[in-house]
Design a protein that fits this description.
about 160 residues; alpha+beta; Alpha-Beta Plaits; six-stranded antiparallel β-sheet; two-stranded antiparallel sheet; globular
Protein backbone atom coordinates (compact mmCIF):
# COMPACT_ATOMS: atom_id res chain seq x y z
CA UNK A 1 0.00 0.00 0.00
CA UNK A 2 1.26 3.47 -0.87
CA UNK A 3 2.16 5.82 1.98
CA UNK A 4 -0.12 8.76 2.66
CA UNK A 5 0.91 12.18 1.42
CA UNK A 6 -0.41 15.55 2.58
CA UNK A 7 -1.91 17.40 -0.37
CA UNK A 8 -3.83 20.65 -0.69
CA UNK A 9 -6.58 21.19 -3.24
CA UNK A 10 -7.80 24.67 -4.13
CA UNK A 11 -11.54 24.91 -4.76
CA UNK A 12 -13.27 27.68 -6.70
CA UNK A 13 -16.66 28.43 -8.25
CA UNK A 14 -18.51 31.42 -9.64
CA UNK A 15 -21.57 29.94 -11.36
CA UNK A 16 -24.85 28.32 -10.30
CA UNK A 17 -24.71 28.85 -6.50
CA UNK A 18 -20.92 28.91 -6.00
CA UNK A 19 -21.08 28.39 -2.23
CA UNK A 20 -23.08 25.18 -2.72
CA UNK A 21 -20.58 23.89 -5.31
CA UNK A 22 -17.66 24.57 -2.98
CA UNK A 23 -19.38 22.94 0.01
CA UNK A 24 -20.29 19.87 -2.08
CA UNK A 25 -16.71 19.70 -3.35
CA UNK A 26 -15.49 19.21 0.24
CA UNK A 27 -17.84 16.20 0.52
CA UNK A 28 -16.78 14.91 -2.91
CA UNK A 29 -13.12 15.07 -1.89
CA UNK A 30 -13.88 13.20 1.34
CA UNK A 31 -15.50 10.44 -0.73
CA UNK A 32 -12.40 9.80 -2.84
CA UNK A 33 -10.79 6.39 -2.33
CA UNK A 34 -7.74 6.28 -0.05
CA UNK A 35 -8.20 9.98 0.72
CA UNK A 36 -9.17 11.81 3.90
CA UNK A 37 -10.01 15.50 4.29
CA UNK A 38 -8.11 16.65 7.38
CA UNK A 39 -8.86 20.40 7.21
CA UNK A 40 -11.28 22.71 5.41
CA UNK A 41 -10.69 26.41 5.07
CA UNK A 42 -13.36 29.04 5.48
CA UNK A 43 -14.93 30.24 2.24
CA UNK A 44 -13.61 33.40 0.63
CA UNK A 45 -15.25 35.74 -1.86
CA UNK A 46 -12.75 36.93 -4.43
CA UNK A 47 -12.56 39.16 -7.45
CA UNK A 48 -11.93 37.35 -10.75
CA UNK A 49 -8.36 37.20 -12.07
CA UNK A 50 -7.67 37.41 -15.78
CA UNK A 51 -11.10 37.73 -17.39
CA UNK A 52 -12.59 40.51 -15.24
CA UNK A 53 -16.09 40.52 -16.76
CA UNK A 54 -17.53 37.64 -14.75
CA UNK A 55 -19.09 37.06 -11.32
CA UNK A 56 -16.93 37.02 -8.20
CA UNK A 57 -15.64 33.66 -7.03
CA UNK A 58 -16.06 31.63 -3.89
CA UNK A 59 -12.72 30.00 -3.03
CA UNK A 60 -11.46 27.59 -0.38
CA UNK A 61 -8.83 24.91 0.20
CA UNK A 62 -9.00 21.36 1.49
CA UNK A 63 -6.05 19.65 3.15
CA UNK A 64 -5.98 15.95 2.37
CA UNK A 65 -4.13 12.86 3.38
CA UNK A 66 -4.12 10.65 0.31
CA UNK A 67 -2.58 7.51 -1.05
CA UNK A 68 -3.48 8.53 -4.60
CA UNK A 69 -0.55 9.38 -6.84
CA UNK A 70 -0.58 12.93 -8.26
CA UNK A 71 -1.94 11.86 -11.67
CA UNK A 72 -4.66 9.69 -10.09
CA UNK A 73 -5.63 12.57 -7.80
CA UNK A 74 -5.83 14.93 -10.78
CA UNK A 75 -8.05 12.49 -12.69
CA UNK A 76 -10.33 12.21 -9.66
CA UNK A 77 -10.54 16.01 -9.40
CA UNK A 78 -11.41 16.32 -13.09
CA UNK A 79 -14.20 13.76 -12.63
CA UNK A 80 -15.60 15.79 -9.71
CA UNK A 81 -15.48 18.94 -11.85
CA UNK A 82 -17.40 17.16 -14.64
CA UNK A 83 -19.99 15.92 -12.13
CA UNK A 84 -20.54 19.58 -11.18
CA UNK A 85 -21.14 20.51 -14.82
CA UNK A 86 -17.71 22.03 -15.50
CA UNK A 87 -17.21 22.88 -19.15
CA UNK A 88 -13.84 24.25 -20.23
CA UNK A 89 -14.51 26.89 -22.87
CA UNK A 90 -12.79 30.16 -21.93
CA UNK A 91 -9.42 30.10 -20.10
CA UNK A 92 -9.84 31.79 -16.68
CA UNK A 93 -13.53 32.14 -17.48
CA UNK A 94 -16.61 31.45 -15.38
CA UNK A 95 -16.95 27.92 -14.01
CA UNK A 96 -19.20 25.82 -11.83
CA UNK A 97 -16.21 24.21 -10.13
CA UNK A 98 -12.44 24.39 -10.38
CA UNK A 99 -10.23 21.99 -8.42
CA UNK A 100 -6.44 22.37 -8.51
CA UNK A 101 -3.70 20.46 -6.75
CA UNK A 102 -1.77 23.24 -5.03
CA UNK A 103 0.62 21.02 -3.05
CA UNK A 104 1.41 17.32 -3.01
CA UNK A 105 3.71 16.85 -0.05
CA UNK A 106 6.97 18.57 -0.93
CA UNK A 107 6.94 17.18 -4.47
CA UNK A 108 7.43 19.08 -7.68
CA UNK A 109 5.68 17.46 -10.63
CA UNK A 110 5.92 18.65 -14.23
CA UNK A 111 4.00 16.42 -16.62
CA UNK A 112 1.67 17.19 -19.52
CA UNK A 113 -1.49 18.60 -17.94
CA UNK A 114 -0.13 18.37 -14.39
CA UNK A 115 2.04 20.94 -12.59
CA UNK A 116 2.59 20.74 -8.83
CA UNK A 117 2.94 22.99 -7.00
CA UNK A 118 0.33 24.94 -8.90
CA UNK A 119 2.38 27.34 -11.05
CA UNK A 120 0.63 30.54 -9.91
CA UNK A 121 -0.39 29.62 -6.36
CA UNK A 122 2.50 31.58 -4.84
CA UNK A 123 1.16 34.88 -6.20
CA UNK A 124 -2.58 34.44 -5.67
CA UNK A 125 -4.06 35.51 -2.35
CA UNK A 126 -7.28 33.64 -3.12
CA UNK A 127 -5.22 30.43 -2.98
CA UNK A 128 -2.71 31.44 -0.30
CA UNK A 129 -5.21 32.66 2.31
CA UNK A 130 -7.21 29.40 2.48
CA UNK A 131 -3.96 27.40 2.12
CA UNK A 132 -2.53 29.08 5.22
CA UNK A 133 -5.85 28.39 7.01
CA UNK A 134 -5.53 24.63 6.44
CA UNK A 135 -1.74 24.33 6.67
CA UNK A 136 -0.13 27.34 8.41
CA UNK A 137 3.41 25.95 8.05
CA UNK A 138 3.02 25.00 4.36
CA UNK A 139 6.02 25.47 2.12
CA UNK A 140 5.62 25.90 -1.62
CA UNK A 141 8.57 24.14 -3.27
CA UNK A 142 10.86 26.62 -4.96
CA UNK A 143 8.89 29.60 -3.59
CA UNK A 144 8.98 29.54 0.20
CA UNK A 145 6.60 29.70 3.14
CA UNK A 146 2.96 30.18 2.12
CA UNK A 147 2.42 32.57 5.05
CA UNK A 148 5.24 34.86 3.83
CA UNK A 149 4.02 34.67 0.24
CA UNK A 150 0.53 35.69 1.40
CA UNK A 151 1.98 38.70 3.24
CA UNK A 152 3.65 39.79 -0.04
CA UNK A 153 0.55 39.15 -2.15
CA UNK A 154 -1.80 41.10 0.14
CA UNK A 155 -5.51 40.49 0.53
CA UNK A 156 -6.88 42.98 -2.00
CA UNK A 157 -10.02 41.59 -3.60
CA UNK A 158 -10.19 38.68 -1.12
CA UNK A 159 -12.57 38.57 1.85
CA UNK A 160 -14.14 35.87 4.00
CA UNK A 161 -17.60 34.88 2.83
Amino acid sequence: MSPTVTAVVAIGSNLDDPEAHVRRAFADLAALPDTWVTARSPLYRTAPVGLAEQPEFVNACARLETRLAPRALLEALLAIERAHGRVRTVPNGPRTLDLDIVLYGGASVAEPGLAVPHPRAHERAFVLAPLVDVWPEALIPGRGAARELLAKAGMEGVRRA
